[in-house]
Amino acid sequence: MKNFNRDIFLIGFMGTGKSAISSQLGEMMALEVLDTDALIVNSTGMSIPEIFERKGQDYFRTQETEILQKISKTKRHVISCGGGVVLKAENIEIMKKAGKIILLTASAETIYQRVKNDEQRPLLKGNLNAEYINELMGKRQAAYHEAADIIIETDHKNMAEICSEIITKLEILEGTE
What we know:
Layout: E1 7-11, H1 18-29, E2 32-35, H2 36-44, H3 48-54, H4 57-71, E3 77-80, H5 89-98, E4 99-105, H6 108-115, H7 130-147, E5 150-153, H8 159-175
Parallel strand pairs: 1-3, 1-4, 2-3, 4-5
Helix pairs in contact: 1-8, 2-4, 4-5, 6-7
């Protein structure tokens, strides 16, 4: 599917595999790979935890919207988005206009296993456990599902299987439009 001329936005809770999948999917589809969190870190000169600590979550969300506006002006990207990108309706609108939104999901226990040694997760500070992760995911679930064009479960699948599933579902979706 190398003739896909739009953007592909990977959304989902932290630890669902957005960064890892974006790299392989970009390679398979010959698309440039971008990461909104990395772009925010580059533009602000601060790590994500520093931004949350010094400037707050609202500032971070504003930066996220500005990054989405910039990157959506050109096409042919796979974009790994921060876990809270769907918390602003404006972000969803930008992504819908620019391309397709793929929701990656995983169980709270799988996410816990993937992020338990990661100190760069400000929303989990002091609450790094499957129960808290499940609670946070529950608060965002409706927004994720409402935004998504395609939903892919990542539990018990390798990256190649996930990417193949994304491409197949994109081909089906593109064929119906």
